[in-house]
Design goal:
This protein is about 70% helix and about 0% strand. The chain is mostly helical. It is globular, with a radius of gyration of 18 Å.
Length: about 160
């Protein structure tokens, strides 16, 4: 429920922002493919670690956004990249935690939180990077639905 609320806030916030470097990026298609696969499998609940390989498609665009002039995007991309690296190396790096008291629980919490943060970061950046024609169509549909609901409430 908390992840869904954070995701809705991210969609609302990112949907109103213009992504100036979308057309110039050579890595945007790979980012959209990798993040869509990760987000889709996260929502379906197939939380197997094999899907982490698709995060490699997102790395070049995340790296590009980490050099962005927009502080907000640079911060989100940097945090998402940090969690991507943490998740990709968590199986190897988490092995020593298995031998510490409550280490397996700590490893599980860290891994779960990192994957949730990746979901939110990639969702935000995916919505942010959508072409403007998609954003315009979605918000036009949203306004028409709000108008239909207001008309229905007036009856």
């Amino acid at each position: 429920a908390i992840a869904a609320l954070i995701a809705l806030i991210a969609i609302f916030h990112a949907g109103h922002r213009v992504c100036p470097d979308t057309a110039q990026s050579t890595h945007m298609d790979a980012f959209r493919v990798g993040s869509s696969i990760y987000i889709g499998t996260f929502l379906i609940g197939l939380n197997f670690d094999y899907r982490l390989v698709f995060l490699l498609f997102t790395v070049p665009q995340l790296w590009s956004w980490m050099q962005s002039s927009e502080h907000w995007i640079r911060s989100i991309a940097g945090l998402t990249m940090t969690y991507v690296v943490l998740s990709l190396w968590s199986i190897f790096a988490g092995q020593p935690l298995m031998y510490v008291l409550f280490g397996a629980i700590g490893y599980g919490v860290i891994d779960f939180c990192a994957k949730g943060a990746i979901f939110v970061g990639l969702l935000y950046l995916l919505v942010y990077s959508c072409p403007e024609w998609i954003k315009v169509a979605v918000f036009r549909m949203k306004r028409s639905l709000e108008g239909a609901c207001a008309d229905g409430a007036a009856l």
